[in-house]
Structures are given as structure tokens and as C-alpha cells.
Amino acid sequence: MAAPGENLRINGARLWESIHEIAKIGPGVAGGSNRQTLTDEDAEGRALFQSWCEAAGLEMGVDAMGTMFATRAGTDPEALPVFIGSHLDTQPTGGRYDGVLGVLGGLEVVRTLNDLGIKTKHPIIVANWTNEEGTRFAPAMVASGVFAGAIDQDWAYGRTDAKGLRFGDELERIGWKGPEAVGARKIHAYFELHIEQGPILEAEGKDIGVVTHGQGTYWTQLTLTGVAAHTGSTPMPMRKNAGLGMARILQLVDEIAWSHAPDAVGAAGHIDVFPNSRNVIPGKVVFTVDFRSPDLAVLQDMEKRLYEGAQKIADEMGLGLELENVNRFDPVTFDAGCVKAIRDAAERLGYSHRDIISGAGHDACWINRVAPTAMVMCPCVGGLSHNEAEEISQEWAAAGADVLFHAVIETAGIVE
Predict the structure, then answer these.
(1) What's the average model confidence in pLDDT over 114-122?
(2) Residue 303's pLDDT band (cuts 50, 70, 90)
(3) What are phi and psi of 157, to 5 degrees?
(4) What pLDDT band is residue 2 in, cutting at 50, 70 and 90?
């Protein structure tokens, strides 16, 4: 395909305005966003996105997982579409850019094509994947996982939130369960724009991250059971302290991750302590260990050492231990051709760039299983994400969307 001219750029001011307009729906308490998946706020954000897509002349389709597909027709009815996608759902205390930049950056690609009167051979589809965050219904990236055939749809429907509400029921309640069979759409190539969610690009002064790989992720939920007892009247030798057991396991997790530095990481983010009273020794704790690495052998080693070490600690302390794998996602290598399209676009546009490995999971990681896929990243201030203080600049957003625009339209084929 012919490369687009370097003078072609998206409308950065319009993209920025759209990002902050949708942020008015489900505002956080500290300037960020709270549009958790399948909530009323999610439904309202979807409706606004749909209205923008329709204004841009796109045809909207929705599948049975609630994923939205906005299509701009190509000139060749037989040509498979080029997808651009990400997500509009957020963390409970999320930022304004995580996911949103990718969806609205895709919309901006289409708006710019319309402005310039450019036609493409391949259709272009902008996708909003349901429940990327996984904060209300675990695991993350569930709709793209079902689309890629990696997650069972009925199992996904049966996932429950903290109140016991089912994913499938909530999808119907907000009115976004679509008629399309999940995974029925075929894809020529898939591109996703995202903030880095890490500090590397900003620290090195790079405009663009060319994502070559995605880290693998292993989540293990551990349940330690001891005996809840009075903190003042229970002698130290007679305690079965589940909280102390968790502390020792978390120290082990840190040691395991450090042993594979610098690329591997590990921590526990989700922790529940029972009964969680000031003067009661914890009788039960439930926590999830998150290990990540771009190397499959390293991930497997970390998980093995966790299982063996946690069992040893529990046995020594007289605690019960249950281990459950709640998410296992192997490392991803993105398509060389799509990666090259992104790198070439950054070069053509004069943006500084570097290859980078995504430390977070994204819908692109699942779609990579069924179509050639790659990602573009832009910096974020201090590497901060999943936080209401998440911040990027208008210039960073525009640069990322420019690169996305060039990679997409080169892949989709400009029709002279």
C-alpha cells in the first residue's frame, strides 16, 4: 500500500475536546472518571459515543458481549476491515485517558478521513470493547477474550460483581446486549492507541512507543484460613494469624519478582481481611498475587515458587491455604508488519520513538490471536495510571493519534 503524505494529520484540538466531553459522564471525585463496566454511566458513555459515530456517518453494530463496532465502508466490498479499538470503561478511580484515548483516537481517524475526503479500500471499524478493566467483573479484557475464542461466553455471562450481580444480567439491564455472534467479524489488521501507563517514554523524552510485545500476566488468588481471636487475650504461641501469613507470603512475592529483575514484576493489589476489626486477629485473608513478565519461562517459575513457598509458610503456621488461578495470560509478540507500519509512521511524521513492551494487558493482546495486531503508545505524566491524577498533554495525544492515523490508512489502502 502507498504511504500517506507526511502533511496528513488528525485534528488534535477536536480529539482533546471529545476526550474531556465524555469525561463529564461518570466523573470521579478528584477530576478523573468512574464509568465502571455495565453501569448506568457506562451506558450513557456508550450512547454519546454512538451519537458521535452516527454523526460521522458510521454504521453501528453491537455483539452479544456488548462490544460496539462502528464501520466506515471501504471501496472494496470483499476487503476485510482494519480495526481500531480500545475501551470506554474505567477503574472506580480511573483517569480520563486510559482506554478512552484509543477509542476516540479511532473516531478521530475516521473524522479526519471524512474531512479530507479520503477513501480507503478496506473498511475501517472503531471498536469499544466491553469490560477491559475487569474491576467490576473479573477478569480483565473479557469481551475481547470471548471474541478471540479464549474465554467462554457463558462463563463470562456468569461472572459476578461484589454485590452478586451477574455480567449477563447487567449487560441486558443497561440495554447493550447486541444481536451479533461474538467473534463473527473477521479482521484484516488491528491497531490500538493507548497511554503507556508507565514512566519510560516521558523519562526518555520520547513521543511514541512502538509496542512490540505484551507482558504475560498470572494472577493467583490465595485464601489463608486461621482462627479469628482476641488480639489482647490470645498468647502469641497460640495464634493462627492469617494476616501474618499473608505478610510473609507478600515478602516472598517481592523476593521472587526481584530475582527476575528488571523485566519481571509482582505484587498483591486486591486484599480482603476478615473480620477486619481492630481488636481481632485476622481469621481469614483473601488476596490476589499479580506476576508479570514478557518471558513465559519466567512467569512459570514465579508461579511455581509462589505455590511451593506459600504452602510451606501456611504449613509452618498451621494455616489453611487455597490457591486459585484467576487469570493466566501468556506473553504476546505483536505482528511484525503492523509494528513496522507504526514505526514507519512515527519516522515519517518526525516523532521521536522507541520500541517498548507493554506492562499492562490490553484488548490488543487477545485480538493478536485472531488477526495481525500492534499498538501505539504515548507518554503519561509520571507513568501514573489507574488513578484520577492520570495526565497526558494534548500534544502527546495528537502525536499518538497521528501515528495511528498513518498506520491505519496505509494498511487500509488509500484509494486515489
Answers:
(1) 97
(2) very high
(3) -60, -30
(4) low
pLDDT for 1? 56
Q: Is the pLDDT of residue 358 over 90?
A: yes
Give the per-residue pLDDT at 4: 75
Confidence band, pLDDT 50/70/90 cuts, at residue 7: confident
* CA distance between the termini of the chain: 12
What is residue 327's predicted lDDT score, i.e. its pLDDT? Answer: 82
Q: What are the residues whose beta carbons fall under 8 Å from the beta carbon of 249, sequence distance 6 or more? A: 222, 224, 289, 306, 309, 310, 313
Query: Quick count: other Cβ atoms within 10 Å of Cβ 401?
Result: 28
**Cα 213 to Cα 216: distance, rounded to the nearest angstrom:** 9
CB atoms within 10 A of CB 237: 5
Angle formed by the axes of helices 100-116 and 394-412, to 10°?
60
183: left (phi over 0), alpha (psi -120 to 50) or beta: left
As a whole number, mean pLDDT of residues 229-254 equals 98
HEC string of the chain equals CCCCCCCCCCCHHHHHHHHHHHCCCCECCCCCECCCCCCHHHHHHHHHHHHHHHHCCCEEEEECCCCEEEEECCCCCCCCCEEEEECCCCCCCECCCCCHHHHHHHHHHHHHHHHHCCEECCCEEEEECCCCCCCCCCCCCHHHHHHCCCCCHHHHHCCECCCCCEHHHHHHHCCCCCCECCCCCCCCEEEEEEECCCCHHHHHCCCEEEEEEECEEEEEEEEEECCCEECCCCCHHHCCCHHHHHHHHHHHHHHHHHCCCCCCEEEEEEEEEECCCCCEECCEEEEEEEEEECCHHHHHHHHHHHHHHHHHHHHHHCCEEEEEEEEEECCEECCHHHHHHHHHHHHHHCCCEEEEEECCCCHHHHHCCCCCEEEEEECCHHHCCCCCCCCCCHHHHHHHHHHHHHHHHHHHCEEC
At 162-195, the pLDDT tens digits run 999 999 999 999 999 999 999 999 999 999 999 9
